[in-house]
Amino acid sequence: MSKITVQDTEITVIKINDEDYICLTDMIRAKDGDFFVTDWLRNRNTLEYIGIWEKVYNPDFNYGEFATIRNQAGLNSFKISVKEFVEKTNAVSLQAKAGRYGGTYAHKDIAFEFAMWISPEFKIYIVKEFQRLKADEEKSLSWSVKRELSKINYHIHTDAIKSNLIPCEITPAQASIIYAEEADVLNVAMFGMTAKQWREANPDLKGNIRDYATINELICLSNMENINAVLINEDMPQVERLMKLNKVAIQQMSVLENVESKKLLK
Length: 266
Known about the structure:
Blueprint: E1 2-6, E2 9-16, E3 19-23, H1 24-27, H2 37-41, H3 44-57, H4 63-72, H5 82-89, E4 94-97, E5 103-107, H6 108-118, H7 120-151, H8 154-164, H9 172-191, H10 195-201, H11 215-233, H12 238-265
Helix pairs in contact: 6-7, 7-11, 8-11, 9-12, 11-12
């Protein structure tokens, strides 16, 4: 569940079957006068639009029942609730939700049309805010992906260190130094500096060197963790491993950046 604010009106956005639905009950508060969602739903143009949308996206839509409802549109006596409409037609574009986030929700395609009924200005602003919400969500997802990529081979790497580089009789503090040294082998191979050197060069930044890495750098680091684990198991000295990992970093980053450039050219 997310919230966007459009012209001082707070509007709820939820996911239903992995699709974005926007709360019409919240949106209608922005319309001048005493109106209800049912006032919009009884409009013939509204029904025509919903019917076409359902025909395109919903193979289970009851078009026969819908035709009966549409034929009544325009009559003074005609009125239908969202719940009744959904039950009769098996529509998926509209949802009547109960509970904490209860209200009438519409698929974003339908909600934007509803916004036009409120006012053209309102539609422009809700589309703008919705796009901003999606951009923020994409950034958040990108951050999560980056963090997960950095953890993919973490346990393989630390297990190799524990099994091959840490003597049996050693304190936890001494062990942590060895782990940190091996992490810095990767940092130097990838970034050309240790974690400490990065902190000293960037005293105003929070987090660590990997928090500011690109997706491509984290993919490369993840691969390097796995390679370093193999080299540790083969008893390769640290200096030799560092040189080999640096070559791997250069080669893999070149490939990844080249792939990225080709995507941008398409």
